[in-house]
Amino acid sequence: VDGPAPQLEEEEEEREPEVRVYLPGQQLQEGEELVHDASAYHMLHSMSSRWPCLSFDIVVDKLGDDRSTVRFPRGAAWRGRGSRFPRTEGYRERGDARDVVTLTNGIYRRVPLFLPPVQYPHTVYAVAGTQADSPEKNEVYVMKMSQLNRTARDAGEDSDSEDDDGGLDDDPILEHRVIPHRGGVSRVRLAKDASSCLMHAATWADTGKVHIWDISSQLAALDVPGAVVPHDATKPVYTVENHGDVEGFAMDWSDVATGRLLTGDVSGRIFLTTRTQTGYTTSPDAFTSHTSSVEDIQFSPVEKTVFASCSADGTVRVWDTRVANRKAVLGINAHESDVNVISWNRLTSFLLASGSDGGEISVWDMRKFSAGFLLGADSDCTAHDAVFRPLVNPAPVASFLWHNAPVTSIEWSPFESSVLAAAGADDQVSIWDLSVEADVEEEGAVAMNTGDGAKLEVPPQLLFIHQGQRNIKELHWHRCIRGVVLTTAASGFNVFKPINF
Predict the structure, then answer these.
(1) What integer pLDDT is reported at residue 21 of this predicted model?
(2) N- to C-terminal Cα separation, the chain
(3) What is the mean pLDDT of residues 111-126?
(4) Read out DSSP for 257-273?
(5) For 45-49, 297-301, 311-315, 377-381, which range has the lowest pLDDT when averaged over its residues?
(6) Biggest alpha carbon distance in the chain?
């Protein structure tokens, strides 16, 4: 009777550990460990710097636009992920099982499309600012992340045999050049000026100063081993002094009006800085309609003089720089709590996304904002006596309460107009697709078991959850590599591409 006991014990020791899907809110039991599933990513890399970075921006490099995909043949159509209608012109990534449907003589024909493999490894350039333990230790990092290979899959997992496995074991390389920076860096934004070789980055310092740097020399040095950066390249080309010693977080460059920079501070003031033939100049007149801290600013992707801002006063406001009295012309009561972040959709210019201190993500149709205000009669927008009605409360076109902590960053995809990503203080990055609709046989969100008996309602629009970082502060989509997201957190940087893209 006692004979088989040792054999049973050996079998228990050899038994593979149970693997379960982790969902937010689930408590890890003793002996359980949270690890990422490599099959959920095309690519995932983690990197760290000497000091954590609160903010960063991605350089729009010259290595090629949309360099991870190929175009459809003209006249082809397909049903994309989450799309209910065929697209007549689009993109398709290698590894997608769908065939191309072409229209020939009025007859749709399905034609297999054989594509070359995605070109790994990727290279990413970025600029970031530190949060050191003393003001004089802070720096601006100009970085080059290279050898970003696709994620290695476990043996037996479904993968593309055509992919070149070479380099999978190579570690990513992080190179950088530094610029000394007095004070912690609260925000970093890059100007994208295609008309010149200049590459200007603006930094919001916690001293209240906004510095503009020409980082062209640092970027060039990253591609030339042993190159020395001139001493003058470590000095700002201009400093915005108008905020005094009041710090801020809101900042954005215009993509359509070269050299225009907006900065908003915690006192509710917004200043406009413009590049001229002789340098930069800042208008002394501040934009003032917010009654609390300005948290984020976004220039219009299509209009040179229009921008939006959000505030701890719970509002989102739209401004026109031509209005002489520097007051907002449109606005809404967006959230009951602070509005931390906004993102203006560059592909569908009437859509604006916002994230609140209460964890709510909302998407707004800005065409509904106009019902709340009446601008003065002057068609040139120079009226000093513009009449404003009270703020309106339109319903958002979409709203999600998934994050259980403040939303710290939000951004629309530069490739798909219905896709956006958000980061939260709950250590999550959530990716959403507004074009996805719930199955008619289902009732809204899908209920999933967290493993400890609790139910979690998962909206059908939620595509992906990225975790594993601590205190995530900011995210950005790469404008040249489809589906690639970069994040910064107290624990370092992540570069990843979900399996959905």
Answers:
(1) 72
(2) 57
(3) 68
(4) STTEEEEEETTS-EEEE
(5) 377-381
(6) 99
Tokens 């359509």 belong to 256
Going by C-alpha positions, the residue among 240, 237, 271, 274 that lies closest to residue 258 is: 274
Domains and CATH numbers, the chain: 5-68+118-498 (2.130.10.10), 69-117 (no CATH)
Q: Output the pLDDT for position 61.
A: 87
> Distance (Å, rounded) from C-alpha 331 to C-alpha 336?
15
Task: For residue 444, give the 3-state DSSP assignment.
Answer: coil
Question: Would you say 124 and 51 are in contact if contact means Cβ atoms under 8 Å apart?
Answer: no
Instruction: Compute the 3-state secondary structure of the chain and give helix, strand, coil in percent, each to the nearest 5.
Output: 5, 40, 55
Give the Cβ contact number of residue 41 at 10 Å. Answer: 19
Tokens matching residue 317: 């406001």
Q: Taking the complete model, does pTM exceed 0.90, yes or no?
A: no
- Asked if the model's pLDDT at residue 111 lies above 60, the reply is no
User: How far apart are alpha carbons 160 and 183 in whole angstroms?
Assistant: 48
Classified as helix, coil or strand, 217 is: helix
CA pair distance 50, 32, nearest whole angstrom: 30
d(Cα 186, Cα 207) in Å, to the nearest integer? 10
Give strand pairing partners of 339. 356
Q: Which residues pair with 201 in a beta bridge?
A: 190, 213
The one-letter amino acid at 462: L
Specify which residues 87 forms β-bridges with: 78
- What's residue 119's pLDDT? 74
